Amino acid sequence: MQQGTLMRKVKSKSWKKQRYFKLQEDCMTIWYQSKRTGKTESAFSISDVETVREGHQSEVLQSVAEEFPPERCFTIVFYGRRGNLDLIAGSAEEAQCWVQGLRQLIEPRSFPLIFALASCTWIRDWFQKADKNKDGRMNFKEVQRLLKMMNVDMNEDHALRLFQDADKSESGTLEGEEFVLFYKALTQRKEVLSLFREFSEDGKKLTLLELADFLREEQLEDEGTEELAMQLIDKYEPSETARARHVLSADGFLMYLCSLEGSIFNPQHRALWQDMSQPLCHYFISSSHNTYLIEDQIRGHSSIEGYIRALKRGCRCLEVDCWDGPNGEPMVYHGHTFTSKIPFREVVSTLGNQTARQNPLTPSPSECWRELVVLASSGAGSQGTRPMEALGSSRCFSVPNPQELKHKILLKGKKIGRLEDTLDGPGEEAPDVSDDDNGAEAEEERRRAKVRGTQQGSALQKEKETLAQALSDCVIYCKNVPFQGFQEARSHSRPSEISSFSEAKARKLIRDEGNEFVRHNAWQLTRIYPSGMRTDSSNYSPQEMWNVGCQIVALNFQTAGMEMDLCDGLFSQNGCCGYVLKPPFMRDEETLFNPNDPSTREGPGPITLTIQVISGQQLPKVANSKEGAIIDPLVRVEIYGVPADQAHQETKYIENNGFNPHWDETLQFQLHVPELALIRFVVEDYDKTSRNDFVGQFTLAFANIKPGYRHIHLLSKDGTSMPPSSLFVHIRITE
């Protein structure tokens, strides 16, 4: 990679340009040179890369699949809204060199290395930006400029003192290790050092027993604290001598607090930790709306990228809206709108490839309709992931659990006749086609069903009837049925059926029949979808739907904001498998729970959540801010849950300090139903004349919080990480 490789950069089927890509000596920057012009430019930084995909795993590379084999193709995916970089190497060996090399660089083996790399990248990036004359040195004037760029408003005398202390060569400039010394002095964490000294007898180190005391008393680690202390020393102590003596230095202590073990998110809950053998209706399921759209609902772009991104994000219920296309080939797009179209064949191929590569707990239940079964059976099924066949007795028709659904695709859709007819042959029940969420489309389907029942048409019509019946036969467990009321559903519906509600209809039911809605969702699946008025792909709050146990709460994944923060926050646990087990009182068909009356919850009384917001570290500047502008950060803590628990409080703002602001403020909340609560930490830049600007956020379920002194690693507006930006807090939970 450092020797350089000539590859094709591809933007479309007709745009393929040769570029000479080379990894720089810092192992963090990729440059490219145009073969035609010879011009050299920076292509991207390793820190900007989210993942690397092999083969034809992008819309662009699929368009040239017949021309270039998959083993020579790969896609570099960047954080945020930056477009993908599609490349074609000269050979499979060269492609593997770059794919494996990039993965090595972006996926360090342990969190300490991630932390160290983030700091090193931060240092180098800022040094290069402030080194105006590019001589590899920095005078005091350049340092002052750098501090402004880094969100630091520092007294000039103090800045000069730090500069002179770091200038070991007394040259009047900083270079190399001297700048690192300056940076370390700048980032010294007094609040962490003070905490360290509270538990250290000599103020220089923590012995094994002293660290165990800290873990037990402050972090509330109640089992094997000495063994855990030994593991943390071995993992985070940078000094070999200290490790040999089983002691932790102040640097090692900071490394631990900034690690995954020191995070607010319980590391044990990042892995698969819940029972996955319960009925599907007992889980919240990560679900997307019109997955193929990556922009608005009227004129937006349809792309397989929408499916890839949703699956990578842990989504487990996808939508595939299919319509007749040219030459009888079905196309995927938003019907009756001006959105672009993609072939259904490409969607099925992508779903098969992604689910086979991810090997998830379960692949995505896809919502498919119309004459697609021939393509479906020759597409996804050939990729190691197949449509569902009935499991167990054909008579019971209970929905399988997530464990049984591994490596299968569950089709939710319309059904002609009864579910039992699929295996037993038609009964006496008259054929019917169930409702869907789109009124116009449902009416069209009913019209077609009527035509099929009364008209003996041409051979083409007969072929369509056969295909429609074949697709209907694929719907084994999730038949769409119109909702006629909770009593009607309890009397006549089956667990294998599902109803869809608009957000407005769901809100009315929550308001008027909250307990009945919870009971209904304890035995049958429910899907919620956004209002048709949300043409800009905005989202509704999923929390109110989760409060009554709705499983499939479909959101527009392409739209960043609080609603998707809540979605990511809930499903970031349990191995990011896309399934979260509902609390026990929401899995009982006779439950008395009503989210509008928290006293109906069975279990202990309310709990108190106390959050001390201590400090912030290296907060980013607001996008498109003026040069030299420094943020005035504040922290707001928001609680989402049942109506009685909805609350928010915020700290005061700190003027002109985004680098190391200190708040030392305590916020307190009472939670009546903590099992349903989500906690969102938001950092904003205070503005007294207009709306505050967003800086960063982190959201997690209350059940995943670790008490004690913890770091919160902030995410950007679209949910990507922003190392080394963080908050330092203390968490206490009391009954």
TrEMBL record:
Enzyme class: hydrolase
UniProt topology in membrane: Peripheral membrane protein
InterPro entries, per the entry: C2_dom, C2_domain_sf, EF-hand-dom_pair, EF_Hand_1_Ca_BS, EF_hand_dom, PH-like_dom_sf, PH_domain, PI-PLC_fam
C2 domain ranges (all copies): 587-716
E.C. numbers: 3.1.4.11
Pfam families recorded: C2, EF-hand_5, EF-hand_like, PH, PI-PLC-X, PI-PLC-Y
Domain PH: 1-107
A GO MF term: phosphatidylinositol-4,5-bisphosphate phospholipase C activity
Stretches assigned to the EF-hand domain: 118-153, 154-189
Superkingdom classification of source: Eukaryota
Any single Gene Ontology cellular-component annotation: plasma membrane
Segments of this protein annotated with the region Disordered: 420-460
Major localization class: cytoplasm
Annotated catalysed reactions: a 1,2-diacyl-sn-glycero-3-phospho-(1D-myo-inositol) + H2O = 1D-myo-inositol 1-phosphate + a 1,2-diacyl-sn-glycerol + H(+); a 1,2-diacyl-sn-glycero-3-phospho-(1D-myo-inositol-4,5-bisphosphate) + H2O = 1D-myo-inositol 1,4,5-trisphosphate + a 1,2-diacyl-sn-glycerol + H(+)
Gene3D superfamilies recorded: C2 domain, EF-hand, Phosphatidylinositol (PI) phosphodiesterase, Pleckstrin-homology domain (PH domain)/Phosphotyrosine-binding domain (PTB)
Localization terms from the record: Cytoplasm; Endoplasmic reticulum; Membrane; Nucleus
The UniProt record lists the keyword Membrane: yes
UniProt keyword terms in alphabetical order: Calcium, Cytoplasm, Endoplasmic reticulum, Hydrolase, Lipid degradation, Lipid metabolism, Membrane, Metal-binding, Nucleus, Repeat, Transducer
Domain PI-PLC Y-box: from-to ranges: 471-587
Biased composition (Acidic residues): 422-443
Gene Ontology biological process terms from the UniProt entry: intracellular signal transduction; lipid catabolic process
Name under which the protein is recorded: Phosphoinositide phospholipase C
Provenance organism: Phainopepla nitens
Gene: Plcd4
